[in-house]
Amino acid sequence: MRLQVTHHQLNTHKEEEAKRKEQVIKEKMLAAKREVSEDAYHAMVGEHENRNRLEGEVEARNVAEALSVLAVKDAADADKHPEKFVDLPWTICLG
To answer: What is the DSSP letter of 89?
Structure first.
């Protein structure tokens, strides 16, 4: 028994193959860049929450704010300008 294939069937098959090849090429390019597609990322990560941000969330806009949050001692005791004391050893030594 002979199967007959129409031109339309051949064209649709070629188009499907071209789409598959294009998808494989995209995946290889992403793998070469060490990137994954958005769907693959969500499949790997899932719906996990960032636990680092759940407790004690603090927003610091600059280094001084971040250090004030991380500081253990009182802010009143902290020296605001430690660069003033750079010359102190020289004045003691020479003075």
So the answer is: H
